[in-house]
Design goal:
- The strands form 3 sheets. A 6-stranded mixed β-sheet has the order 3-4-2-1-14-13. A 6-stranded mixed β-sheet has the order 5-6-7-8-12-9.
- Strand 1 (4-11), helix 1 (19-29) and strand 2 (33-37) form a beta-alpha-beta unit.
- 22% of the residues lie in helices and 27% in strands.
- Helix 3 (126-142) packs parallel to helix 5 (178-190).
- It has 7 helices and 14 strands.
- With 267 residues, the protein is α+β, with helices and mostly antiparallel strands.
Length: 267
């Protein structure tokens, strides 16, 4: 019998502020697992009741007031939860959990990589240095992966030319600098991991998950970036049957500047 598992990732930019659109998304798309980033919510104030009412009884969180934060919600049991600290900072950027899939457990790592500030120079911008250090530690750690694993989240880097609206104009902008692009590829290949989204959208086609709040009309301007990613270990790649960006969510009332991405696995 085939098992079908849907995993969604979404930088929600405050889970309490945008709870109505989270509830709408869950009701409309019914993913088995939803990984949220930038929840901006201390654990004591997380909206457990509303999300459990929506059908997600299993919830693991790592949050803090006003900044960062990740959460994984699931219709299926979540076990083996870990919350890894990176760069000796307690800034709530990772949750790893096991989810049952096709008779065994599948590890899902939910990440929120540091944005890196505005200046892409680690010598004058400690936030950018932190981002690079985070990626180095992430590479070393994920490079030891030996079991079926999915990495999702806001990785805050658009690695390929067609992951941004203009590679030339954004080459000096944090999230698409050559150094960041190279470092993220180092992390992905360390697994190694397969970029599930680009298995379904050819490299020559544009692919975005984020549109700035600064645009008066984000759809008309369409100056997007692909900052949100879904990676899988190679044995899982053939089991990924679909990946979709729910771009319409960027136009919902009081939206996040990120759109959700849903991957479907079947085995």
């Amino acid at each position: 019998m085939t098992d079908r598992l849907t995993i969604a990732t979404w930088n929600i930019n405050s889970v309490r502020l945008r709870l109505p659109i989270v509830e709408h998304f869950l009701k409309t798309y019914q993913p088995d697992v939803l990984c949220l980033q930038e929840t901006k919510c201390p654990d004591a104030n997380f909206p457990f009741a509303a999300l459990r009412k929506a059908g997600y009884q299993n919830i693991e969180i790592s949050g803090q007031k006003g900044y960062h934060g990740v959460a994984t919600l699931s219709k299926r049991p979540l076990t083996g939860t870990e919350r890894r600290r990176f760069c000796d900072k307690d800034d709530c950027r990772h949750i790893g959990t096991d989810v049952p899939f096709s008779g065994r457990h599948l590890r899902i790592h939910n990440f929120y990589v540091p944005a890196g500030g505005d200046e892409p120079d680690p010598h004058i911008n400690e936030k950018f240095q932190h981002k690079l250090d985070f990626l180095t530690e992430m590479e070393d750690w994920l490079g030891a992966t030996t079991f079926p694993c999915v990495v999702v989240g806001d990785l805050n880097i658009a690695p390929y030319e067609n992951d941004v609206w203009s590679s030339k104009q954004l080459s000096r902008v944090v999230s698409h600098t050559p150094l960041e692009r190279e470092r993220l590829e180092d992390v992905r290949q360390a697994g190694p991991f397969v970029d599930a989204m680009r298995r379904f959208v050819p490299m020559e086609e544009k692919l975005y998950t984020w549109w700035s709040y600064r645009a008066k009309d984000w759809q008309a301007a369409n100056k997007g970036r692909r900052l949100d990613h879904i990676w899988v270990t190679p044995p899982l790649a053939p089991k990924v049957t679909d990946v979709k960006v729910i771009a319409e969510a960027r136009g919902w009332e009081r939206p996040s500047d990120h759109a959700p991405v849903i991957a479907t696995l079947e085995a």
